[in-house]
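G., the chain you wanted modeled:
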Amino acid sequence: MSFPPSSTVAQAELASPAPVDSLLASIETDRPDAFVSLGSAFLTRLPAAQLPEPYLVGISADTAAQLGFNAADAQDPAFAELFAGNPTREWPAEKLPYASVYSGHQFGVWAGQLGDGRAIGLGEIEHEGKRFELQLKGAGRTPYSRMGDGCAVLRSSIREYLCSKAMHHLGIPTTRALCVIGSDQPVRRETMETAAVVTRVAPSFVRFGHFEHFYSNDRLDELKKLADHVIDRFYPQCSEADDPYLALLNEVTLRTADLMAAWQAVGFCHGVMNTDNMSILGLTIDYGPFGFIDEFNANHICNHSDSQGRYAYKMQPQIGYWNLFCLAQALVPLFDPQYDSDTRNDKVIENAQRVLEGFKDRFAPALERRMRAKLGLAEIREGDDKLANRLFEVMNANRADFTLTFRNLAKMRKADASGDAPVRDLFLDRAAFDVWANDYRLRLLEETQGDEARASAMNAVNPKYVLRNHLAENAIRLAKEKDFSEVERLAQVLRHPFDEQPEFEAYAGLPPDWASDLEVSCSS
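Predicted structure as tokens:
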């Protein structure tokens, strides 16, 4: 299976193309305004590693439709070959897939050059006026692999596939996953596992770390070229500003603030918020040691490798803000036409700091809006933020389940405590909950909407189903035995996180005792 030629050539050569051939023909590998057009300073073209006997683990029908093809086409064995990245020697070097270079701060420490150590971009697909990059994660070593083997494993690939689906249907900006392709090729992690490739889909995979790379190497021409590319493709309104690059920082700051609010509101922990894992488009990117909180703990750490708790749940907004400072530092030369690394321009620094303060102005109201909606408060009243914070304090003290607490709040009633039991029973200290519940009921009495309307509105923002670790683990264990039915079933559940789905009620219950022993780390 070869990587795709241009659409024009492919259509001329194939009078009646097979579905996978048509898909191949739709992938553009050298579009003049795409990321690849930036040149060899930004990326390296190379084939993927051979993945023996690939097979389909899962395919996202809605993501396939977004790209303009039918998920049923994935049953063709050629589909697995394509999205395993299996290369051909026949394709010209200048049109091979590509891995990009970037740098970054990892766990708060400058790590220097990083890059796509196990990911390669296939190219772009345009469908219905929207363009998407396709990237294979786990496609083998690249010049940026450092000591890594360039592989991904089935376990982590399934987790990314399912979580990116969950986040999308929760309404949280994210990269998407088209499919997971597996292979029996052994891969050593903590134990011996098997290889897999997950196909990621996004308008762009540019990260904060891309800008840090060129700034840190004093390559200001490339820094400007990258910023101009991002503005032209994704933030064209910035080009009209007095300072387009400051406007770019402002847009990214606002999107990042919104993303942090969205994560906090559903109890999502990313686990490894390094600057090289921050999207310039404000997307959730790089699903590694992530997790949705079960028993609420504001200090919850989902990454077993994060021994200092840098990326704990309560720290995520602060880390998002810190990462934006790193991005701003990388952009400083573009803010100042007379930039000199040895001379501080106080006005430039002041302007950048002013833009970064917009994070705080954006994040707090964004989270308050989400929390007000989660509590069913349609009207704004002074003290609503304190009411929400007190709930979190009681949840934290009682380790109440995050998702079930907010879902079951909708069953409470204004007039009496007859609907309290489903949520009250999640708290060991019932008296502490009752104190909060009484204040909450008094607040509900100020609302004009009735209990039923409020419950309906709350259920539209408080998911019943999230990707709990034990659910993913169940699917992974079966998949290791070549039974992918649970991957498909769980994917279907996560497509409708706010619906009741009575046939899947078990997926909404408290996690089993064994789930507390599950650990996720940076190993994947």
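The longest helix spans residues 346-374.

Shout if anything looks off.
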